[in-house]
Structure formats: C-alpha cells, structure tokens
Amino acid sequence: MKKARVFTVLGVIVLALITVVMLFPIFVLLSTSLKTMTEIFRYPPSFFPENPQFINYADVFGKLNFLLPLRNSLIVSVSIVVGTLLSSSLVAFGFSRYYAPGKNILFTVVLLTLMLPFPSLMIPQFVMFTGMGWVNSLLPLIVPAFFGSAYMIFLLRQFFGSLNNSLFESARIDGCGEFRAYWNIALPLSGPALATVAIFSFIWSWDDLLTQVIYLNTIPTLPILLSGLRAAHTIPPWNMMMVAALLTSLPCILLFLFCQRYFVEGIVTTGLKG
Description:
This protein is an all-alpha fold. The protein has helices spanning 2-33, 37-40, 55-63, 67-97, 103-112, 118-131, 139-142, 150-160, 165-173, 178-186, 191-206, 209-215, 222-231, 238-269. Helix 4 (67-97) packs across helix 8 (150-160). The two termini are 41 Å apart.
C-alpha cells in the first residue's frame, strides 16, 4: 500500500510538472500581450506586467481590423468542417457497410493519396483554380473539402465498421432506404468519431497559412494577418502580435474543451475494428 501511494504521489508530481511546462508558453503569451514595448525589451525580463496594458486588445481590433480576418477564417474553417464531415462520412459509410468487387483495392488507392506531398499538388491545383477564375476567393480553400479527405475517411470507416449490423438489417426490414440508414442511424451513433473529424479539420484549416497565401491576394485571414504583421515591421509590435496570437488560438482551445470527451472517445473507438 505504501509503495502504491508513493507511486501515486510521484505520478501526480510528474503530471503537475508537465502541466506547468506545457502551460508556460501560454503564460508568456498572455503576459507579453499586456506589456508595453519598452517593458518587453527591458533586461532582466519580468514575468508579470507592471501596469497591464489592456489597451493592446482594443488596438488589435482598431488598428489591425481584427474582425475581418476573424470572419474570413471562421467562414473557411467552418465550411471545411461541414464539407469534410458530409463527404468523408458518406464515403466511409459506403466502404464500411457495402461489399463490392475491388472495394479493398479502391480503399487502398484512397489511402495512397495520403502519401502525395502537398508541394507536388500545388502547381496543378493552382493552374486548375486559376483557369476556373477562383484565385483571390475563398472557393479554392473550401470546395476541395466537399470531395472528402483520405485520412478522415479512414477514421470514420473504422468507426462505422464497429456499428452493430443488426441495426441496419432491422431498419431495412422496416423499409428504411440506404441514405436514411446513413443519415438516421449511422451518423447519430457516430458522435465521437464525427467530433474527432471536426476538431482535426478545424485546427488544420485554421492554421493553414501556405494554402491561404497561395490563393488569397487581397482577402485577409488570421494566419495571413499574423505573418504580415511580423514581416511589415523592422521591430515587430510584439505586444499586439501576442494579443492577436492569443485571440487566434482561443477558438481551437474552446472547441477542444467542449468536444474533449467526444474527441478522446473517438480516438479510442476508431481503432477497435478494421
């Protein structure tokens, strides 16, 4: 019993230390966002601001017009989440519930697309979207999500494959069509897996600077705002950059906090059955 208590205490101490290390960058981010530029460059540095400058937050919305990039980023990320959920879940449902010659080969081909590096696709995609007149619009960022994601298809296929077949057989006996079986049975039972896909899709699209720089010339988003703020100044306004970075990270943090239980359950259950 004493050994068990010792190991428990040591485990708690180690976890507490890891938590402090992980949260320290966020603390520095918050502290710097409340400092003046003079205080930021003062040596030795101080961990806590002497006179918190909450005006920095107002300056970000006033001087940087933060709401416009925030709106554009939300439109892109929410649209990508919706498109990925709809398209990937539909494809995954077909791969998991139906049997057809060559199905496994086709699924392997889908997974092989994960091995294609994005730089090898940038030029063909850019030429295609330029010919369609979509450059400098949000369409090149949003539309591809409605054609499925190989990784998300894989995750959802694993989860759909673990659902009880008797549910679908009973539904077919009662006259339920295939699309209704997908919409009314599979999706309501797949909350954890769908939450996992939504979190991954949102975070990846929220931080996707490269694709946004390629296609957006005059449309600002949060990654472009942060990157441009650093490049436009010889001495960057670090306090305003920290404010913008903190506000930019909040949607991802809040999304994970609200969906944490479903996210963990989804990660566990998607690997139960192939």
